[in-house]
Structure formats: C-alpha cells, structure tokens
Amino acid sequence: MDNSYENKVHMIGRITLVIGLVLTFLPPVFLWLIYGIVPPLKNLMNGIISISSVMLPVSIVEVLTFTPMLGASAMYMSYLTGNISNMKIPSAAIGMEVAEVKPSTKEGDIISTIAIAGSVIASEIIIILGVLMIAPIGEKLGNPMIQPAFEQILPALFGSIGAYYILKEWKLAVIPILTAVAVNMIPGLPTAITIPICVLASIFGARFLYKKNLIKVTD
After folding, report:
1. What is the mean pLDDT of the segment spanning 13-28?
2. Which of 12, 48, 178, 192 has most Cβ atoms within 10 angstroms of its Cβ?
C-alpha cells in the first residue's frame, strides 16, 4: 500500500478515536453537570488506578500482538468499537483464512479490515434487535439456573476457532496449549503476563519445530 493510503488511515483513525474518547466521557459529565451526581474524588481515583493497573499493560500487549495480524485500519476500528479478542480477532482470522491470504500483507490488511467492518455492522444490528427482543424477558434471563450457560459462551467461541486451527497443524498447538495450561495454574497471574508468555511460547515453539523439519512453511 502506498503512503497516501496509510496516511489517510492514520489521520481518520486518530480523529475517530479522539471523537470516541470525548463521547465516552459525555454521559458522566452530563450526570455531573445536570443532576450533580459525582463520585467522591478518593473513590474515583482508586477506581481509575485499580482499572488502569490492569488494563494499561493488557492494552500495550494487545497492540503489539494484534497490530501485525490486523493492520492499521482494522486496529483503529477494533479499538473504537471494542470486543477485540472475542469478536474482531476471530472475524479477521476467519476472513483471511477463507480468502486464503496471510497476515502482515497488503491483502491480509484489506481482508481483515473488511471482515472487522462486517462484524461491526452485524454486531450493531444484533444489539439493536437484542435490546428490542430481550427486554420483555430480561428478568427470566437472570435466573441462576441458566447463568452457567452464559459463562460458557466465550470459551465455546475460542474453543471452536482453536479447534479449527489445531486440526490444520496440531504440532504447532502442543507447546502453546501446554504453556497456557501451566501459566493458568499459577493463581493471581494477570492477563498482561499470561498473554506475552503464551505468544512467545508459540513463536519459539514454531521456530523449534521448523528447525527440526517437523513442520513446513507453505505459500
């Protein structure tokens, strides 16, 4: 891609992210100015510090991990609309797989952008329909008997996607899975540490298998 395209992507991406940031603060500012509702400063600062201590390193890791896979335009859309791990990454991965293109290529960036744009449109439509249809039965969905089912949605999503890639080349999955199981057995280990460990294990594991001629690179 030429520099003019990349420059436009970064310009539009930065503008939309700034607008999104401003709009994010409008509801609490509205409650403060109109209704005088404001949390105590001490509680507010404690909340900001506690959340930032977790989300800041996680966000840095996500940017370093996902940007090579998605490309600039897809990353801007992903961070503006959210649900990166459980919706945007799977959409981009499946889109590139179907289109038979690789990440970190011009084609891969275009396909991931289209896939994520489609996921944004689809999710917004589903949210609108969900609000309209679920509102009448909202109280029933809070029944403790069915709550365990909702807790398994995210594991089921990643499990189905993971199974697809594991079946394609199971040797590459052995070291990452063993590493993920090992680090998750350590109590209290934050996501900001587990993600880089698993990513590095995947990279070095794949390199080891390649050096031993146990896997081959296909075009």
Report:
1. 92
2. 192
pLDDT band at 218 (very low <50, low <70, confident <90, very high): low
Task: Quote the CA–CA distance of 88 and 135 in Å, as a whole number.
Answer: 26
Cβ-Cβ contacts under 8 Å for 115 (sequence gap 6 or more): 74, 91, 92, 94, 95, 96
Choice between 72 and 137, residue whose per-residue pLDDT is larger? 72
Going from N- to C-terminal start, the domains of the chain cover 1-38, 54-135
Give the predicted TM-score (pTM) of the model. Answer: 0.64
* Confidence at residue 105, expressed as pLDDT on a 0 to 100 scale: 86
H helices present in 71-190, as ranges: 72-81, 89-99, 106-134, 138-141, 147-151, 153-168, 170-184
Rounded to an integer, what distance in angstroms lies between the CA atom of residue 26 and that of residue 163?
42
The CA radius of gyration of the chain, in Å to the nearest whole number, is 21
Q: What is the number of alpha carbons within 13 Å of residue 174 lying toward its C-beta?
A: 9
Using DSSP, state whether 201 is helix, strand or coil. helix
